[in-house]
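Why predict the complex rather than its parts? Because the way molecules touch one another can change local conformation, and only a joint prediction can capture that. The input here totals 294 residues.
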Amino acid sequence: MMTTTPDILLAVALSYGAAIAVLGGGLLWAWRGWRRCRPAPVAGGPVNKDQDLPRHTP
Amino acid sequence: MNLHAFATPRQFLRMSARLRPWLAGVGCLAAGTGLYGALVTSPPDYQQGETVRIMYIHVPAAWMAMLAYALLALCSGIYLVWRHPLAGLAARAVAPCGVALTALCLVTGMLWGKPTWGAYWVWDARLTSVLLLLFLFLGYSLLTHAFEDQERGTRAGAILALVGLVNLPVIKFSVAWWNTLHQPASVLRLDGPAIHPAMLWPLLVMAVAYLCWLGLVWLWRIETELHRSRELRRGT
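Output of the joint prediction:
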């Protein structure tokens, strides 16, 4: 079996660090984009008014 | 069943809102359990020692990158045949997920390759075909954004995505067709997994966590693209 050297521990740590950075960063980027673009809730009215309710005005 | 009626933006937004909390919950649970299994309970490999722990983040990244490409090609095919706008948005939305997963697969593979093979990179069939997958995702993203008319861009990207589909079996079978430094398949084999159960379960649980990540990011991106295209239409 390959003996555990500092190089190996560094490679494992860097791999997990890269995974956290890429997956965490991707999650944050997608969430922030979604938050910025979603329609703002109407005060006192239903959320996504124009999408979920039939329109009564032309 | 009329699939077009089912795949309206309104239906999609409703389904997405229901699905997202589940993906987040199951994903967090799977990531926690999988990391515990990968770093604490699973034993070191009889040959590779502790470096085998890279497998738990490298292999699911490779699987999900291939799944992301299959989804990209499927949505592109639907877009080209039925001209369904939601399919075009879904295709555009999955490409960045594919870039992230393929890049992660390559980086972790390189970090695993150095102590195992003595080199970060070799022009091995498996490594080269996965690098080509990254270029296909990047090419798709660049092509779809190269046109002023979004529809033309999505159509051009869809053709590229379908042509690039041929790379998926090449990635999967590259280790069987050519002599490669990369090890052959040890999980998805006709005669069953050749990996110890103590290593297999954390790997599969981590794959579930990655799947939830892909699902969640994809849904957020589709919704973002959907709202953006609506704003564009209102603006013109």
